Amino acid sequence: MALLSSVPIAAVPPDRFEPLIGPAAYRRLTERFARARDLLGGHAMWNINSTSRGGGVAEMLVSLLAYARGAGIDGRWEVIEGDEPFFRVTKRIHNQLHGEEGDGLPLDQAARERYESVTHAAGEELASRVAPGDIVLLHDPQTVGMIPALKRRGVPVVWRCHVGADGSNSLMSTARNFLRDYLRQADAYVFSREQYVWEDLDPGKTVLIAPSIDAFSPKNQELSGSQVAGILAAAGLQEAVAAGDPSFVRMDGSPGRVERHAEVDEWRRLRPDDTVVLQVSRWDRLKDPLGVIDGFVRYVLPRSTAHLVYAGPSVESVADDPEGKGVLEEASARFASLPSRDRERLHLATLPMADFEENAAIVNALQRRAQVVVQKSIAEGFGLTVAEAMWKRRPVVASRIGGIQDQIVDGRSGRLVRPRDPAGYGEAVRGLLDDPGYAASMGEEAYRRVRGGYLGTRSLLQYIALFERVLV
Ligand code: UDP
């Protein structure tokens, strides 16, 4: 049975970056792409991860690979199709790498056998398809067991680790020990920030590349007020007052429209003049959905007229996360347990995922619609949602953890709060709701910060520099 399935990638010419980054930087980008083409000499650059939609890794691969293909590089994307027991083990590794207990079960011999039964076979499958001269980028812990088979085939293998957490504990060490022997065979490691680098991996093979967003993707492209209203109305999230425009531009430049609304929940729709506080996240306890709801109900709701929207993907769609369904049920139960006058101002939305770009347009509209965006995570390798909201000039209240600390300068480009402090979170949100001038200037600064450091062009240049190290 095939364990890898190919994800189609659009080819998007990178020339749309020119007005954004200016002619000199654009010229440099095209020169670097030419260098990457020379280095690869027509060979493929394979990327393997565990889901084609939902979550930050898929989000970045869609864009970065589209520009690589648009620049003439044979970028490919395969998803590892494990079964549920496999993804239970990989979720356990994921949780423990963040220092969290997760399902509380051990990473023992049975877990290893389950992990290897999928990753070894996937490694063999890919090894039979790669050609000498190709390069393979494996993303996150789900793919690490593929390394030995690929190295036997003689291709360079890079491991891109998107996860990381502050500090260290015995769970983190256990998860790292679980993966370490496979990893030693890789040719390079990419981490999102210095603090996440594993101390005992060869520093000579390690590079840092912070994540980035694509300013032109359906997730981040400019939308007019009419488009925001039209998209949210078509999605069933907001009452339609006048004919809004539900259109957006797809990655390849073709027109798209938001048309589906069947999967959106049945909570009361927003009204156009409601003030909105938003968190967009996968259904994961590390995103602290109950903390977002409880903190809002306790500290924001009684002292403002704001509404909370908590939006995440429809759970059936995210195959690599077996915990998602349970977390959504917990959040729904918490909503349902609240008095109806509170529920009037709380909106829990599961967004349709069948069309990735349509989902992105809905998230884009929600982020633009919100007066304040929150990301109250307990652990976060980076926080694409934070960068996305900052790009849209939203003031963001986020936990002072992980990569979010690099993204936000507290009090200037957003607010950082302690992760398990609902009162502090509520106070920061209220401070922004109560002072629109302060919120607007913070939003401007947030936009500048993303523009200066977190756009995809920077990541593309860094990946090309990495290929120069690994391929020559
Ligand atoms: N996302 C989405 N739809 C959803 C929930 C999340 O498109 O219903 C996207 C979100 O906009 C962001 C990514 O998934 O681009 C999440 O990345 P982040 O780094 O914030 O967290 P991760 O999910 O990787 O832990």
From TrEMBL:
The keyword Transferase appears for this protein: yes
Keywords: Carbohydrate metabolism, Glucose metabolism, Glycosyltransferase, Transferase
Domain annotation Trehalose synthase N-terminal: ranges: 47-197
Broad class of enzyme this protein falls into: transferase
InterPro entries reported in the protein's UniProt record: Glyco_trans_1, Trehalose_Metab_GTase, TreT_GT1
EC numbers for this chain: 2.4.-.-
Keyword Cytoplasm: no
Pfam families: Glycos_transf_1 (PF00534), TreT_GT1 (PF21269)
GO molecular function: glycosyltransferase activity
Residue ranges of domain Glycosyl transferase family in the record: 272-448
Family stated for the protein in its record: Belongs to the glycosyltransferase group 1 family. Glycosyltransferase 4 subfamily.
PANTHER family associated with the record: SYNTHASE (CCG-9), PUTATIVE (AFU_ORTHOLOGUE AFUA_3G12100)-RELATED
The protein's assembly and partners: Homodimer.
Protein name: Glycosyltransferase
Organism: Amycolatopsis pigmentata
